[in-house]
């Protein structure tokens, strides 16, 4: 799946006089499923399984965050400072004119007590160059906060995400025929998960679900994940402490709910799904049933 995330207009960046205009290639009317929720609520694992079983396209919160890393890389390559007010408008211009592609490859999900869930592999391109690994460098991590806090950049990246969710693609000389064919595969919907998908990115989604669970249950899940990671890497130098995991999770919740830009909150029209007593497969089954029910209500053929 190739996602051509190019800013379609310069409406969100009036200060960018040289914003490139792109011609629309085609438009697909996709069923939009927005899944939000706090950390370790099960939203990402469930979203992946639901997307695969429904044969929907999928973009996760990690891919959304990666876009900020791509812009950070682009800015540093132009010797622009992500934290400098003097460079803010130039970075906004750079964001508007940069070609960002996400190429996601699904792997069959592995559901067992001994094996972790199989994650989709997402390759990330900047102007046709694979920067998947480069954007994970310490230098990018150190500078990304300045990009993420730039409101004009955030608006542009949200617009790129919306364009993908709406099935809109734009002409780009870097797209080969084979990649265009990959885009045109017959998907009928998209699953996007994060913390502000239903409230900010896709406010008109066909179905919004807010996935949650008690802090204790979520801490137990995260604790087990960390133990499994430690076992796989055979790293016994650090002891995983449950109380510390719970404390960190509660701090993350506070930060997510109280942040000024795009805080975590349940959309008014979202379905609340408490997964405290549900397995990941039970969560996926419930979400799929909600999708099929909503599609029937809207006379959408999935």
Automatic annotation (TrEMBL):
InterPro entries in the record: Cytidylate_kin, Cytidylate_kinase_dom, P-loop_NTPase
Pfam annotation, one family:
Cytidylate_kin
In terms of HAMAP family, this protein maps to: Cytidyl_kinase_type1
A GO molecular function assigned to this protein is: ATP binding
Catalysis: reaction(s) = CMP + ATP = CDP + ADP; dCMP + ATP = dCDP + ADP
Does the record's keyword annotation contain Transferase? yes
Q: Which NCBIfam families match?
A: cmk
Enzyme group, top EC level?
Answer: transferase
Its recorded name reads: (d)CMP kinase
Q: What is its EC number?
A: 2.7.4.25
Sorted alphabetically, the keyword list is:
ATP-binding, Kinase, Nucleotide-binding, Transferase
Q: What positions does the domain Cytidylate kinase occupy?
A: 34-166, 179-291
The UniProt similarity line reads: Belongs to the cytidylate kinase family. Type 1 subfamily.
Q: Name one GO biological process term.
A: nucleobase-containing compound metabolic process
KW Transferase (keyword) present: yes
Native organism is Glomus cerebriforme
């Amino acid at each position: 799946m190739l996602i051509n995330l190019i800013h379609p207009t310069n409406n969100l960046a009036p200060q960018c006089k040289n914003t490139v205009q792109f011609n629309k290639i085609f438009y697909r009317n996709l069923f939009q499923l927005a899944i939000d929720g706090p950390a370790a609520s099960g939203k990402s694992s469930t979203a992946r399984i639901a997307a695969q079983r429904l044969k929907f396209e999928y973009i996760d919160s990690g891919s959304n965050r990666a876009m900020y890393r791509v812009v950070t890389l682009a800015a540093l390559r132009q010797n622009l400072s992500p934290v400098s007010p003097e460079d803010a408008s130039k970075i906004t211009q750079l964001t508007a004119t940069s070609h960002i592609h996400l190429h996601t490859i699904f792997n069959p999900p592995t559901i067992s007590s001994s094996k972790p869930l199989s994650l989709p592999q997402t390759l990330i391109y900047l102007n046709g160059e694979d920067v998947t690994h480069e954007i994970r460098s310490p230098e990018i991590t150190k500078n990304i906060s300045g990009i993420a806090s730039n409101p004009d950049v955030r608006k542009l990246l949200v617009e790129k995400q919306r364009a993908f969710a709406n099935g809109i693609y734009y002409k780009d000389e870097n797209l080969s025929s084979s990649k265009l064919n990959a885009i045109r595969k017959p998907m009928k919907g998209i699953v996007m998960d994060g913390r502000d998908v239903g409230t900010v990115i896709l406010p008109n989604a066909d179905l919004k679900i807010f996935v949650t669970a008690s802090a204790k249950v979520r801490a137990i899940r995260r604790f087990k994940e960390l133990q499994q990671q430690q076992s796989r890497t055979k790293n016994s130098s650090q002891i995983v402490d449950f109380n510390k995991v719970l404390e960190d999770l509660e701090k993350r919740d506070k930060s997510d709910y109280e942040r000024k830009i795009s805080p975590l909150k349940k959309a008014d029209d979202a379905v609340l799904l408490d997964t405290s007593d549900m397995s990941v497969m039970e969560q996926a089954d419930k979400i799929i049933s909600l999708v099929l029910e909503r599609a029937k209500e809207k006379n959408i053929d999935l």
